[in-house]
Amino acid sequence: MDSSIIISIYIFVLAIFIGFEVITKVPPLLHTPLMSGSNAISGITLVGSVISASKGQDGLSTILATVAVVFATINVVGGYLVTDRMLEMFKKEKENK
Amino acid sequence: METVSGMDKITMLVYLIAAILFILGLKNLSSPKTARRGNRLSMLGMFLAVVMTAFKIIDPVYVLIGLVIGSAIGAISAKRVQMTAMPQMVAIFNGFGGGASTLVAFSEYLSLNSGYQTLDFSITVVLSILVGTVTFFGSMIAFAKLEGIMRGSPITFKGQQLVNAVLLSFILIIGAFFVMALGGVSIFSQIPPWAYLIIIAILSMILGVTSVIPIGGADMPVVISLLNSYSGLAAAFTGFVLSNYVLIISGALVGASGLILTNIMCKAMNRSLTNVLFAAVGKEAGSSTQGEQRTVTRYTGTDAAVMLENAQSIIIIPGYGLAVAQAQHVLHEMATLLMERGKDVKYAIHPVAGRMPGHMNVLMAEANVPYDYLYEMDEINDDFQHTDVALVIGANDVINPAARYKKDSALYGMPILNADKANTIMIIKRSLGAGFAGEQNELFYDPKTMMVFGDAKKMLMEIVNNLKA
Lengths: 97, 469
Description:
The structure holds two protein chains of two kinds. Chain A is mainly alpha-helical. Chain A contains five helices and no strands. Chain A has one domain (about 30-95). Chain A starts with a helix and ends with a helix. A seven-stranded parallel sheet of chain B has the order 1-7-6-5-2-3-4. The longest helix of chain B is centred in the N-terminal third of the chain and has 29 residues, at about 120-145. The chains are: A mainly alpha, B alpha/beta. Chains A and B meet through helix 1, helix 2, helix 3, helix 4 and helix 5 of A and helix 1, helix 2, helix 3, helix 4 and helix 8 of B.
């Protein structure tokens, strides 16, 4: 059996454990930014979309990949910007005055 | 194993750096002080990953077109969105992420040169399309419901769960046909493999729709969290298709994050995930369970102001209704006035206040309420018994004592804020209507309760004016 899929599965499983460790430490105060921020991370599909869209293939394959680039970019850019906008609003009392 | 060129090695190392930056970014979200920096680290990771990928580009034209259009749409919507509409925004962004996964999987399949593929490739293509498409269409339905384009109440039909189960089985069976066809075992040799993929996509689309329409408005926080998790899984599966580790790691992180939030939301409502997904709760919100007429004591804004002036400790319980009335700023003004008079003022935030996890905190932060005044339920629930006034605005189910004892209630078992333990409970509300869960709130009729009927913003302004006078 091809070993690359096995390595992929290893990485996937280990990353899930890291995810659980890191994310359980996020306080409920920040759960909305966590969601929009992690949402932006899932836009990493952009990397895949770019690879697919740039193969220089003709026709449908490229069209689909280009639409994928648009979708993933909306996800990434929108997700990060809106998270930054929210986090900017969280202030402690002293900073306010 | 395929050979890896020097350039590819560098690319893979940069992807590793990107993955580390994502993890550090999430780690920094553990405190509001470092959260913004964390988000920027995460952005940097994404930037590096995309730039590094750009080196592989053979034909940049389409990529650039896509990037420009996507950035413009993303940036404009992120700038314009109202904080109350955050759940819709997250839902639709989720959907786009899932949609991208589906499209990449299709595109990868179409760009193949040979007809025969390994098992790994064809299986992950199927999974990518399944999860990506369900995420896309599920998110669109969630968006439509939250935005009010579609009715928020659950849409159910007979045998809904059966239909979903059958759909999923069909998808998996057809997926197996596809995998076999690509492996050289064709059962229906006259059907080209891409036709299987199209059928899978169509069935997944139907599954995405039918699995979200039966979920009611109150349960939306759970669904958004779950779709968040799916979008991560979709990204990870795309990573499997491309053998791209940064996609796999990021997808796994997001998948875990979504699952944790889903779990927290379910616990906060004392519901199991299966119950949220299949029980269609919140069907007839507003139907009163008690026929008898009971009297309530009505008060005006002036009475409320007097009461607050005489109180020493006040806990404010904001609900989504407060944000709908756009009254957070007036509330903050009122709280500041009271604090200037030496009163102890705190905010109690229920885990499901608002329409997505942590939503109410963002809405309060938007009104410049410092986050150190916002307390989570577990931190503050014991304080109510020593508190003079619990001021409830635009919240209902989260303070309904029926959740503690009324076994036949939809709310039963849900942890609530102990507003009823305060000396006086002041509730600003439009009417005596039941909450999302359709359960009447006996607290309205409690002799300790002051009901102040009216629009939250107007009433709070009245209180502020009285306090100033």
